[in-house]
Specification:
Layout (H helix, E strand, L loop, with lengths): L6 E10 L10 E16 L4 E4 L5 H15 L4 E7 L9 H16 L6 H16 L5 H8 L3 E4 L5 E4 L4 E10 L5 H14 L1 H24 L2 H17 L5 H12 L4 E5 L5 E6 L3 H10 L4 E7 L3
Helix pairs in contact: 1-2, 1-3, 2-3, 2-4, 3-4, 5-6, 6-7
The structure holds (3R)-3-hydroxy-3-methyl-5-(phosphonooxy)pentanoic acid.
């Protein structure tokens, strides 16, 4: 038997377009240089030996959904995550992709990207209900993308020559992604035309942002972050903690800031001329933050 190699999958950050993406609008997302790692060792049966802090039952249930197709290799899985849990930074999606890759590797099953995405999606459905697919696609592809839910889901790689983004954690969420997506859906059911128009406006911001990103216009992209945050806020998805964190980052010189992911808490992202200085300023205020970097053509 081949040695069992560790599987490392990056987390992700949604740059623009969360929630509207569920309704068919485009969204931009990029992998993070923070990973989920699955290590394996031979065992009597397929088991989880080490798990991140929470979610053991959901994880077991999610894995069961792919075992009928991928089988049950006799390995113990050790799962480690460098990603804050439930912060909208893709920890569940990265875990789903990593488990699919680990189960396949342990049995020498070759998987195409399409198969990987389909299986990871089945796991993500346990965590998120009916996700758009942007999270696990970004984690599996491992490069910045413009994503469309479809069906069929599709993505195009983004031309990001150099980007530094400050990611800051505002605090725990007041609900999970599934709850946020469901409550927005209930509002959409009441007045589809009005909500579709708001989602279309977010879609236009996403494409404006993609052009500004490609041309390296960070102040312009920052203004689009602000506008996307305001649109999400108007949909009732932000919180005082997220708004306050974005305000603090703007007051500290950010070109713009928004929350990222499902909302109701979690993380914010900002563009700043000196990202490390912003991280230091946030640390002095007791806020956990780091710089995410991308460089080179993708
Ligand atoms: O799980 P999160 O916080 O990354 O949010 C996922 C993004 C949403 O657009 C809110 C939902 C989805 O499935 O696209």
């Amino acid at each position: 038997m081949e040695p069992l190699r560790p599987v490392r999958v990056p987390g992700k950050v949604i740059l623009l377009g969360e929630h509207a993406v569920v309704y068919g609008q485009p969204a931009l997302a990029a992998p993070l240089d923070r990973h989920v790692t699955v290590r394996m060792e031979p065992a009597e049966a397929l088991t989880f030996a080490t798990l991140p802090a929470t979610g053991a039952a959901a994880l077991q249930e999610a894995m069961e959904r792919v075992c009928d197709e991928l089988g049950r290799p006799r390995v113990a899985l050790h799962l480690e995550s460098e990603l804050p849990l439930s912060a909208g930074l893709g920890s569940s999606a990265a875990i789903a992709v990593a488990i699919v890759r680990a189960l396949a590797q342990a049995q020498a099953i070759p998987l195409t990207l399409e198969e990987e995405l389909r299986l990871a999606e089945r796991m993500e459905e346990t965590f998120h209900g009916r996700p758009s697919g942007i999270d696990h696609t970004t984690c599996a592809v491992g490069r910045p993308i413009r994503f469309l839910k479809g069906p069929p889901a599709s993505f195009t790689p983004l031309d990001v020559s150099k980007l530094e983004l400050v990611v800051a954690v505002a605090g725990p969420r007041d609900g999970n992604t599934r709850q946020k997506v469901m409550s927005l859906r209930a509002a959409w059911e009441q007045d589809r035309a009005a909500y579709d128009a708001r989602f279309a406006a977010i879609g236009r911001l996403v494409d404006e942002g993609a052009a500004l990103l490609a041309s390296g216009d960070l102040p312009g992209l920052g203004r689009v972050f602000d506008a996307n945050h305001a649109a999400l806020q108007a949909l009732g998805l932000s919180t005082a903690a997220l708004d306050g964190l974005c305000e603090r980052m703007r007051a500290a010189g950010a070109y713009g800031a928004k929350f990222t992911g499902a909302g109701g808490g979690g993380a914010c992202i900002a563009l700043h001329p000196e990202p490390e200085a912003l991280v230091a300023a946030l640390a002095a205020q007791g806020t956990r933050a780091f710089v995410a970097r991308w460089k080179g053509k993708t």
